[in-house]
């Protein structure tokens, strides 16, 4: 699961780091013609002087002679005739500090974007309400707190206002009443829990097209107190999601459809709604997006859904819809079939056979996981040329994996946790765009291929956990983009092939535990690993196999988060290279034949929480450097040949320690009394050592 998250988030992280570089490319114009007005230039310099520009994004804002024209400064735009500054766009400049009142000198400002900055929990300056020419005001994610200033209500020409993802709140929405030009309002993630007049405020927004009130703690409006509607608005996008007190929000839709000339997008997800889906969307022929996911809705779908001829996204996941899925799908017959692209019915109580989906000719995403679908999948029911994602995991589907080669766009195929059986056929290899293949936990499904099989796809994620696999899949040799692989809990009794080093060095997640794999694990140090190719976590679990040789391959990477090599035949010393593994949280080398001392470089594992070294032949003392591993919750070094006194520092170094297992070693001397200082200690096992003397008082109390 971690791995999915990484794949999804990676492009975002890359974007986030690239953006500042791209945005910086606006160059200063060196020509002598200076357009910028001196008064406004001074104002901008004043504004800069009160900001903390950590990333140098305002370096062009300078008094230097060559940079006189403030119209050329980063984030500034001037009017092409009057030369007044009309636009100030400081989006994602990473700024801190204060917003100067000199902003008011920019009287002709029409566009102000201060979003994605770090204004140190300041309040939004009230004087912003005096910039009366503003059309566009974005204060989102800028770390503002405290109330939204009522003065915003003075900005009667405002078309666009965003103050989402701040710590701001508003006790009532009176200030919205005058914003008759407003087309876009985003209050996502502000606190409106006391704004009992929020619906009245909405009724005053006669130009509103997009209204975002996600996670705003909106109070319920009793149906008897719905405000009067005085003329319509062009409201198209309505987002009331994640407001747990709006359990009647389905009923509010009647009111909204009286207000709006045509809703296109409605999000009521995560609103604590109960009962059946009501007849509130009937006749909404412009509706394209409907999200009712993550509620407690029951029953099926009303029949009129088949008539929603514009619907492209229907999200009903995480509810209690029940009954035969064929019946539910029958109510999706009619004009809806042509446009529907995303159908999400996951985690409901739907049962029965997968019905014929081929009539949804535009379908690209079908998520039905977490239901009780049964029977076999008919191949002709999934003739969907645009399907990119099919998720049928966690059902009770039987029979063979269907031949899906008609779904030539398929990229993600999840069939995990079903009761599929038979043999996976090479036809799966015809899915040339496939990136994710999850067939895990189908205990009767054979997933063997001939050693010469060459699939057309390049997978990024493969899980064959707990299927029927006996040989190390030779076809992996053909996979150049594999990042995550899970073949755990099979019966692979095969040698690790020599070519596997090339694959393994690129993996961010590998789980091959609980097989009979033997041979040496490839030495990853010699393989090419592009620097920072994957920042983030790496997991290697090859426990419970018969792998032998040394564990020096651990030294390759500085990003391991979990390493489990336990229950194998590893031997030799633990390499002293842990200075490179500072992200490591879990390390198990238990039940092997490792010898020598615990390396001093363990002291660098400052994130380590669980350490298992039991049942090896480790000798020497616990290195004092281990004091640095202050996050440890479990130390298990039992069944070794460790010696020395139980160090005093144990009692002082591990505030989180719950399990301390020193059993069956050659520790001697007395028990340090400061073991009593370990506030969370639950299990202390020092049996079978040569420890003598008194047991500290505190421990006696907790003896059974
Ligand atoms: C700089 O200004 C001159 C004169 O207005 C203009 O011709 C030129 O295109 C500008 N150069 C840049 C890089 O903006
Ligand atoms: C000035 O800006 C206006 C509106 O942005 C545009 O329509 C006009 O063509 C521009 N004039 C010149 C000379 O660039
Ligand atoms: C701005 O708003 C405040 C409070 O809403 C009000 O008292 C003030 O008169 C307004 N100023 C202008 C210039 O409209
Ligand atoms: C908040 O509002 C924006 C509109 O800019 C929207 O795109 C987004 O999906 C909304 N929801 C969340 C959770 O931020
Ligand atoms: C919203 O504000 C109210 C009081 O103003 C407070 O009790 C509540 O905890 C806040 N809700 C959130 C989600 O912060
Ligand atoms: C939301 O509902 C809870 C529980 O029913 C209630 O205690 C709370 O006061 C309500 N909050 C608002 C803002 O209506
Ligand atoms: C409806 O509009 C009229 C005229 O514009 C106005 O007098 C009245 O107060 C409005 N009613 C509501 C409830 O907004
Ligand atoms: C919607 O409008 C109709 C017809 O004008 C009216 O009868 C009904 O009460 C209105 N419903 C709501 C919830 O405002
Ligand atoms: C669907 O639309 C057709 C044509 O407008 C109409 O005859 C039919 O009654 C509608 N069906 C439902 C269930 O609303
Ligand atoms: C697969 O399972 C079905 C139903 O459980 C059974 O009838 C069939 O014989 C099985 N097929 C194979 C190849 O094991
Ligand atoms: C100790 O580890 C060896 C090697 O893996 C294993 O064979 C043995 O069963 C383990 N002993 C215990 C008590 O787990
Ligand atoms: C312990 O940590 C400190 C600072 O984090 C570091 O300077 C020192 O080298 C570490 N000691 C060992 C033995 O790793």
UniProtKB/TrEMBL annotation:
It comes from the Eukaryota. The keyword Transmembrane applies. It is found in: Cell membrane. Residues 101-213 form the Disease resistance R13L4/SHOC-2-like LRR domain. GO terms for cellular component: plasma membrane. It is a single-pass type I membrane protein. This is Receptor-like protein EIX1. It comes from Sesamum alatum.
């Amino acid at each position: 699961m971690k791995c999915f998250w990484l794949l999804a988030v990676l492009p975002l992280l890359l974007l986030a780091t690239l953006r500042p570089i791209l945005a910086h490319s606006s160059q200063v114009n060196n020509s002598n013609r200076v357009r910028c007005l001196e008064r406004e230039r001074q104002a901008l310099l004043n504004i800069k002087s009160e900001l903390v520009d950590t990333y140098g994004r305002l370096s062009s804002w300078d008094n230097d002679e060559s940079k006189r024209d403030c119209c050329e400064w980063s984030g500034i735009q001037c009017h092409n005739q009057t030369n007044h500054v009309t636009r100030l766009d400081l989006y994602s400049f990473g700024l801190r500090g204060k917003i100067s009142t000199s902003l008011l000198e920019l009287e002709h400002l029409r566009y102000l974007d201060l979003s994605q900055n770090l204004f140190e929990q300041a309040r939004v300056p009230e004087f912003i309400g005096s910039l009366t020419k503003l059309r566009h005001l974005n204060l989102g994610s800028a770390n503002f707190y405290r109330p939204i200033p009522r003065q915003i209500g003075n900005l009667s020409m405002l078309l666009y206002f965003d103050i989402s993802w701040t710590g701001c709140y508003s006790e009532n929405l009176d200030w919205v009443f005058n914003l008759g030009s407003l087309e876009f309002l985003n209050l996502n993630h502000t606190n409106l829990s006391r704004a009992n007049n929020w619906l009245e405020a909405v009724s005053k927004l006669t130009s509103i097209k997009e209204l975002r009130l996600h996670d705003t703690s909106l109070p319920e409006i009793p149906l008897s107190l719905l405000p009067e509607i005085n003329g319509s608005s062009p409201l198209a996008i309505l987002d009331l999601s994640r407001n747990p007190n709006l359990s009647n929000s389905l009923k509010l839709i009647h009111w909204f459809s009286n207000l709006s000339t045509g809703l296109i997008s409605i999000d009521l997800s995560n609103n604590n709604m109960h009962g059946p889906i009501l007849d509130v969307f009937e006749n909404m022929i412009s509706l394209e997006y409907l999200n009712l996911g993550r509620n407690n809705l029951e029953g099926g779908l009303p029949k009129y859904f088949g008539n929603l001829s514009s619907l492209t996204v229907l999200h009903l996941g995480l509810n209690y819809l029940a009954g035969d899925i064929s019946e539910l799908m029958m109510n999706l017959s009619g004009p809806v079939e042509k446009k529907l692209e995303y159908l999400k019915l996951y985690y409901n109580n739907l049962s029965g056979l997968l019905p014929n989906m081929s009539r949804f000719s535009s379908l690209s995403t079908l998520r039905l996981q977490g239901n009780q679908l049964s029977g076999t999948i008919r191949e002709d029911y999934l003739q969907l040329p645009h399907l990119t994602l099919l998720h049928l995991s966690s059902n009770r589907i039987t029979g063979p994996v269907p031949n899906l080669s008609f779904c030539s766009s398929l990229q993600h195929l999840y069939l995990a946790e079903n009761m599929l059986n038979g043999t996976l056929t090479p036809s799966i290899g015809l899915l040339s765009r496939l990136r994710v293949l999850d067939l895990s936990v189908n205990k009767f499904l054979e997933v063997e291929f001939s050693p010469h099989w060459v699939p057309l796809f390049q997978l990024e994620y493969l899980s064959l956990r707990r299927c029927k696999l006996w040989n190390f899949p030779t076809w992996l040799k053909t996979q150049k983009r594999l990042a995550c692989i899970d073949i755990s809990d099979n019966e692979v009794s095969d040698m690790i092939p020599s070519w596997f080093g090339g694959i393994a060095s690129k993996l961010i997640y590998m789980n091959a535990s609980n097989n009979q794999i033997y041979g040496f694990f490839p030495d990853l140090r010699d393989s090419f690993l592009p620097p920072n190719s994957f920042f983030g976590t790496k997991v290697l679990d090859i426990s419970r196999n018969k792998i032998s040789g040394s564990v020096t391959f651990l030294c390759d990477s500085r990003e391991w988060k979990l390493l489990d090599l336990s229950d194998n035949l590893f031997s030799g010393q633990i390499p002293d290279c842990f200075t490179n593994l500072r992200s490591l949280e879990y390390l198990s080398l238990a039940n092997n034949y490792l010898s020598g001392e615990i390396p001093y470089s363990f002291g660098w594992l400052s994130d380590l929480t669980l350490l298992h070294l039991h049942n090896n032949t480790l000798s020497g003392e616990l290195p004092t450097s281990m004091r640095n591993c202050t996050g440890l919750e479990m130390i298990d070094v039992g069944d070794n040949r460790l010696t020395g006194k139980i160090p005093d520092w144990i009692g002082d170094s591990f505030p989180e320690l719950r399990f301390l297992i020193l059993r069956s070693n050659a520790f001697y001397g007395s028990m340090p009394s400061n073991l009593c200082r370990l506030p969370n200690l639950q299990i202390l096992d020092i049996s079978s050592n040569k420890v003598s003397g008194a047991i500290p008082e505190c421990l006696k109390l907790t003896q059974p």
